[in-house]
């Protein structure tokens, strides 16, 4: 089949998210200037540069109590920092619990029973048990076409790696099995890996 998104797809559900999958999940923690912590998952997330290391995530909806966006972006606008917490399979239920539309000012760490720790380079909380945490300083917010669509870019200023995820000096994803988002209500988990050498290597 072929369809133009502007004309609709005539399917029971939008296939776009299922086509672009699997996608890593950025579990974004933020802290407002009032000290309120927030934690929410975003599946439009990825790393975008090596030097300096940079990441991005996109927020694509809004809440009535946050105007044109959601809690995460509202607090990032306020403070200029955020932390990306890597989601392991074991944390799937806790991650999902933090996706609920809580009122502004709700601490999802508390609601989902997640232990938090203070970041080192920014004033923000992080998921204490995560395989890795990326402390980030905001570099740019890009308003995208469409209502409430914003891409958030940040430079990584601090990296936490859980000790048991390092095997012979390698950050081994098979020690924790990353959770990834697919389409609809579907997720997948990384349980195997293989290597490919680039031509000429």
From TrEMBL:
GO terms for molecular function: FMN binding; oxidoreductase activity, acting on the CH-NH group of donors, NAD or NADP as acceptor. Residues 20-173 form the Flavin reductase like domain. Coiled coil: none annotated. It comes from the Bacteria. PANTHER family: BLR2425 PROTEIN, FLAVIN REDUCTASE LIKE DOMAIN-CONTAINING PROTEIN. This is Flavin reductase (DIM6/NTAB) family NADH-FMN oxidoreductase RutF. It comes from Sagittula marina.
